[in-house]
Amino acid sequence: MRIDIWSDVVCPWCWIGKHRFERALALMGDRAPEVDVHWHPFLLAPDADATPVPLREAYAAKFGGVERTNQMLAQTQATAQAEGLPMDFDRGQVKVTTLPAHRLMWLAGTQGVQEAVGEALFRAHFEHGRNLADPQVLIEAAAAGGIPAERVTAMLGSEEGLAEVRAGLGQAQALGIQSVPTFVINGQYAVQGAQPPEVIAQVLEKVAAEGAPAAPADNEHGCGPDGCSV
């Protein structure tokens, strides 16, 4: 079963959704299908560049003030920590372009190590507050998948992977994907948001057994209870 996941590495619900998907497979046990997972790019902040802006400041401007931002981040962080993820929005996170990180994920995909590199990128941002536009941070994340530093440096010093990432962004637009995470199953069925593991497991079982479509979950603009949108 092919699973295509559109995600951004600064989307908290994408990290939560990644682990809920893994838990869903674990819940299914022997009934779990063999999955071929591919990660694809999505830009929650397409206007961002490499200049770091404090995340809380950026969120306050986007979501309507400091109070709402603090409440939203606290709720999201509590959900993540209840899932066993060490998300900490007091680590000095910054808003920057994630285009280089998506290029790294493309490179990781060519070597079959997207899961390890993606997890390292999520942890760098959410657990440690690292700047995902910093080449050194990308080099360290790549090391989690065994990708040599010089390979990452060479990629970042060229346009390698840029066309592929832009194609992935265009594909998301063509499919009408406006929020992440979005899981596309066998190229036909979509599940949006970080749904509970039990729900994901039910969808996978239904698709495997009957090919029945999975209804997308609604997400409000911004970061809602289970996903983030532009």
UniProtKB/TrEMBL annotation:
Q: Which InterPro entries match?
A: DSBA-like_thioredoxin_dom, Thioredoxin-like_sf
An example molecular function term from Gene Ontology annotations = oxidoreductase activity
Instruction: Please give the CDD domains that the UniProt record associates with this protein.
Output: DsbA_FrnE
Gene3D superfamilies recorded: Glutaredoxin
Q: Which SUPFAM superfamilies match?
A: Thioredoxin-like
Q: Name one Pfam family in it.
A: DSBA
Q: Can you give the residue ranges of the DSBA-like thioredoxin domain?
A: 3-204
Task: Spell out the protein name for this chain.
Answer: Polyketide synthase
